[in-house]
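User: Show me a protein chain along with its predicted structure.
Assistant: Here is one chain, sequence first, then structure tokens.
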Amino acid sequence: MSYLCASPDWEGRTNEYLHMFRHKAMDEKCYDPEAGQRLWDESERIWEAIVQKAKTSAT
């Protein structure tokens, strides 16, 4: 990870999936905007539950 962050070889490159420093094709599901939205919504719901629990525990 440090190499990818610091190496000029990777500057400006985005949306590339690497496994063991080799390009690997992503599953087609990764490009499905509806699936992405469902993942985002569920992640938001889980995160909000964590935050609420932390607020309750802190009081």
